[in-house]
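Structure in, sequence out. Go:
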């Protein structure tokens, strides 16, 4: 891996309306951060006290490098905190989940209704022999039952492993076997773009090679309902109907595992990340509330699927622990037309909207006339996650969606971190291209290979220097891999991303370290060149890779998709070349530009550069189980 390198920094800055700062949960970031630094354990102790515990903790943390325990000997149940706490605390009739189907059908579950559903399903699972510590795989479309199943596992102390409903049989079988799941919860079908996705067929295929699975619970949605095989399948509705209504929440040790979740695998094979009950609850609760500034009347729509960490932390556990109303929608953002999401924002009065750059760039491609047809004045906070938010995409999101009114919280974090680690807290000045600063509670830095902080303007490795409550505890079945995160750079958790800081400490993420390109001795992060390309009016999305070159070591090749109305051709290639040269200088100029209809992405929407690279160089792309079809 190359040494540190110079990066050209974006200089634009947006100043938010001072009123949103004054009213925020964290009205003064600088003060909150220094209070945290002054007494980190005291900071988290305070946060944890806002939640319900069956037994208090003896110590906030125990740090035995690289193993951490948080809220040591504390006992709790996260589902209790997401449900019972609200039912008895004045939110009984408040909507917890509003589900929207592609067909237009809607379902509202109040906190009381969700509590009942979860208790019954938990009893149902326990009648199938699921108990504390047992693994349950959840492979479902985006329906309320998916969330019910997660919370039911948590209530029983069973460990869930949610597999995104868009995965195929091999990916599903690998995850079931790796987690050694005893029960699988699924549905007969999912619905997407007006088509039916035959989940049960995929499951039946996967089950031919998953001997650990004893029973499959099937949510039957199609009419007439398919016949089930009574030897191994159980009907979801019947299971719930014959289950007892009350199910006490099992008292869990803070450090008992809560779930396993496989990483999205943009740069390598998926890893089973293990999170535990206490610290994960505290971390997601705090960040949901403070980073999105959730107030009692807010309606939060996080467009991820619960099959990703973003859904686990900011559809399910964080927002429900806070007690907010969560919107979920089955389907895709541009079906039946590219206004579908904005219609829903308008109709449901969504106030906090959290999505990914891939979606924002797709909306840009369709043009601002789509959101302009709807009343988006309910929106108050806009969030982004998953990839660097290119300055151009920031601007578009800020103006076309937020009406120049809503702060944008670009949140950097990972499956491994469990919670947000970097963002621009509500009310702080926003810098397009920069995710922001470490949140109070996180110690994040940019360092060289030996762990020394690098000066502003110099690129380096993004690391986390102190343990945090919702950090991964291990990689399921591969603790060695866990230790690698902590022993690559001395004293630090290495995130695998490249980044750069400015004079004020704002952090810009430059892409994955594995994707770094070294041209004539200069290190170039993928995000810089891609953002320069995306800032051209003809470009919708861009991905760059390095290609070996006898003279320069590597040259840059760019793959570009165009906005609606733009035409590919040699003229545009020249123009884009000049454009990148002007913004970044000659070293960053792509030697080749290829126009594409779409870029290869993970099913969670991240560009998979290694697939482009393998194709270009005629190499083996490695594990591509998470590649979109
Ligand atoms: C939450 C999630 C983690 C990787 C991470 C980084 C990229 C996530 C980002 C971002 C720039 C942001 N990433 N958020 N890059 N700006 N705001 O996406 O988890 O699927 O594990 O991916 O995603 O490269 O290391 P996960």
């Amino acid at each position: 891996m190359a040494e540190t390198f110079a990066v050209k920094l974006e200089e634009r800055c947006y100043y938010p309306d001072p009123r949103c700062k004054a009213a925020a949960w964290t009205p003064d970031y600088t003060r909150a951060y220094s209070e945290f630094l002054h007494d980190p354990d005291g900071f988290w102790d305070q946060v944890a006290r806002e939640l319900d515990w069956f037994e208090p903790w003896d110590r906030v943390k125990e740090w035995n490098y690289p193993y951490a325990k948080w809220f040591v000997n504390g006992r709790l149940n996260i589902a209790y905190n997401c449900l019972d706490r609200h039912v008895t605390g004045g939110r009984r009739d408040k909507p917890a989940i509003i589900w929207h189907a592609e067909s237009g059908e809607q379902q509202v579950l109040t906190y009381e209704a969700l509590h009942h559903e979860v208790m019954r399903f938990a009893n149902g699972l326990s009648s199938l022999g699921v108990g504390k510590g047992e693994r349950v795989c959840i492979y479902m479309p985006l329906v309320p039952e998916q969330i019910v199943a997660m919370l039911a596992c948590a209530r029983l102390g069973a460990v869930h492993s949610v597999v995104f409903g868009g995965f195929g049989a091999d990916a599903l079988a690998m995850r079931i076997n790796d987690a050694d799941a005893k029960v699988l919860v699924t549905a007969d079908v999912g619905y997407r773009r007006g088509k039916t996705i035959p989940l049960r067929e995929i499951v039946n295929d996967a089950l031919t090679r998953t001997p650990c699975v004893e029973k499959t619970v099937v949510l039957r949605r199609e009419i007439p309902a398919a016949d089930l095989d009574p030897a191994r399948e159980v009907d979801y509705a019947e299971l719930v109907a014959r289950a007892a209504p009350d199910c006490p929440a099992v008292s869990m040790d803070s450090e008992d595992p809560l779930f396993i979740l496989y990483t999205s695998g943009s740069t390598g094979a998926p890893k089973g990340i293990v999170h535990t009950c206490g610290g994960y609850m505290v971390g997601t609760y705090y960040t949901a509330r403070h980073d999105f500034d959730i107030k009692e009347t807010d309606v939060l729509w996080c467009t991820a699927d619960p099959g990703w960490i973003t859904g686990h932390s900011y559809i399910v556990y964080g927002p429900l622990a806070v007690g907010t109303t969560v919107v979920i929608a089955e389907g895709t953002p541009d079906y039946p037309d590219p206004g579908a999401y904005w219609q829903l924002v308008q109709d449901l009065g969504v106030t906090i909207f959290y999505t990914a750059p891939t979606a924002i760039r797709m909306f840009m491609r369709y043009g601002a006339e789509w959101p302009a047809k709807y009343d988006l004045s309910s929106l108050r906070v806009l969030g982004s996650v998953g990839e660097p938010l290119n300055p151009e995409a920031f601007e578009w999101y800020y103006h076309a969606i937020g009406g120049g009114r809503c702060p944008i919280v670009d949140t950097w974090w990972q499956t491994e971190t469990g919670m947000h680690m970097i963002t621009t807290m509500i009310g702080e000045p926003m810098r397009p291209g920069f995710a922001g600063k470490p949140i109070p509670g996180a110690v994040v830095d940019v360092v060289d290979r030996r762990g020394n902080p690098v000066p502003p303007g110099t690129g380096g490795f993004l690391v986390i220097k102190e343990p945090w409550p919702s950090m991964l505890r291990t990689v399921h079945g591969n603790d060695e891999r866990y230790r690698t995160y902590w022993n690559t750079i001395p004293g630090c958790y290495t995130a695998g991303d490249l980044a750069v800081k400015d004079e004020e400490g704002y952090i810009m993420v430059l892409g994955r370290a594995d994707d770094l390109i070294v041209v004539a001795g200069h290190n170039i992060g993928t995000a810089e060149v891609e953002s320069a390309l995306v800032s051209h009016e003809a470009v919708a999305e861009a991905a760059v890779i390095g290609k070996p070159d006898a003279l320069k070591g590597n040259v840059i090749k760019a793959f570009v998709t165009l906005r609606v109305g733009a035409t590919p051709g040699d003229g545009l290639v020249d123009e884009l070349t000049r454009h990148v040269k002007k913004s970044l200088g000659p070293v960053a100029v792509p030697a080749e530009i290829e126009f594409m209809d779409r870029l290869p992405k993970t099913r969670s929407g991240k560009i998979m550069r290694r697939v482009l690279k393998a194709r270009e160089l005629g190499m083996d792309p490695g594990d591509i189980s998470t590649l979109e079809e």
